[in-house]
Design a protein that fits this description.
Blueprint lengths: L2 E5 L3 H13 L3 E5 L2 H11 L3 E4 L8 H9 L16 E5 L1 H4 L15 E4 L4 H14 L1
Parallel strand pairs: 1-2, 1-3, 3-4, 4-5
Length: 132
């Protein structure tokens, strides 16, 4: 089954995400910050990344997605550019800010609120994995 890497600093959210994914048969790994996430991306070469926005900084998830999708041919993470990214965030529930995937500003494949029910998250994960 597919390898999923979640990069999020909230252990409760990580556990709430891990349980349905592992119950469905996915191999689940977690990192609690961008730096650890980048190390694990290189080590695991996951099939999907689930990414938080606000971690050590308010925009850490944005910065990480930009790093992973850097179009430069000599970009450090060019080999991982194809990995689908699902942004799972509480920004929409805690602020009036709204955002969607955008190639220039937020190069992710999909966004879901952290309050999304597990079935909806599993459906989005399956959809992103079948796009590959």
């Amino acid at each position: 089954m597919a390898k999923i890497l979640m990069i999020d600093d909230d252990p409760d959210i990580v556990m709430a995400t891990r349980i349905p994914l592992e119950a469905t048969g996915y191999e689940f790994h977690a990192a609690n910050c961008a730096d650890e996430g980048l190390e694990k991306i290189k080590a695991l070469n996951p099939d999907l990344i689930i990414l938080d926005v606000m971690m050590e900084t308010a925009t850490e998830g944005f910065q990480l997605s930009l790093k992973l999708r850097d179009p430069s041919p000599d970009a450090e993470y060019a080999a991982y550019r194809h990995i689908p990214i699902l942004m799972l965030t509480a920004v929409h529930t805690t602020t009036p800010l709204r955002f969607e995937p955008d190639d220039d500003y937020l190069p992710v494949d999909a966004c879901l609120d952290k309050s999304t029910n597990p079935d909806e998250m599993l459906a989005k994960v399956a959809e992103l994995l079948t796009r590959e």
